[in-house]
C-alpha cells in the first residue's frame, strides 16, 4: 500500500518524498491528472515546443524508423558534397 496524504485547500496534495524519489519529477514540471474508475492517476508529461511538434508526429516517427532500418541494412549513400547530393536527387 502507498503513502497516504491529505487533500488540502483548493484540492492540493503533496507528492510524498518516497514517491518523488522513484519518479523523475521536478518543481514546475507539468503532470497529467486522470480519473480512472475510482482512482486519480497523476502522470508526468513532457511538453514539446510547438515548433518541434512535427518531429513527434506519427508520420515523421514512422519515417525515422524506416530510415533507421535502412541504415542497419547498409542502404545508405554518402556524398562528398552538397552538389553531388543535389545531382543524385535531381534537385
Main β-sheet, in a few words? 2 strands, antiparallel
Q: In terms of structural class, how would the helical and strand content be classed?
A: alpha+beta
Strand order of the largest sheet: 1-2
Q: Which value, in Å, is the CA radius of gyration?
A: 23 Å
Strand content: 5-15%
Quickly count the helices.
Answer: 3
Query: How many angstroms does the end-to-end distance come to?
Result: 63 Å
Number of spatially distinct domains: 2
Would you count the extended β strands for me?
2
Poorly predicted ranges (pLDDT <50, ≥5 residues)?
A: none
pLDDT averaged over residues: 93
SSE blueprint and pairings:
Layout: H1 17-20, E1 31-36, E2 39-44, H2 58-72, H3 82-88
Antiparallel strand pairs: 1-2
Question: Can you describe this structure?
Answer:
- The structure is a single chain.
- The protein is α+β, with helices and mostly antiparallel strands.
- It has two domains: 36 residues, no CATH class; 39 residues, no CATH class.
- Helices cover 29% and strands 13% of the residues.
- β1 and β2 form a beta hairpin.
- It is elongated, with a radius of gyration of 23 Å.
- The model has no long low-confidence stretch (mean pLDDT 93).
Amino acid at each position: 500500500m502507498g503513502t497516504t496524504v491529505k487533500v488540502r485547500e483548493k484540492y492540493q496534495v503533496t507528492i510524498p518524498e518516497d514517491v518523488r524519489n522513484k519518479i523523475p519529477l521536478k518543481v514546475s514540471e507539468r503532470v497529467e491528472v486522470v480519473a480512472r474508475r475510482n482512482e486519480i492517476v497523476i502522470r508526468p508529461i513532457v511538453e514539446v515546443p510547438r515548433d518541434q511538434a512535427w518531429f513527434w508526429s506519427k508520420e515523421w516517427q514512422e519515417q525515422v524508423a524506416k530510415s533507421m532500418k535502412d541504415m542497419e541494412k547498409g542502404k545508405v549513400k554518402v556524398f562528398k558534397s552538397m552538389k553531388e547530393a543535389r545531382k543524385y536527387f535531381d534537385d
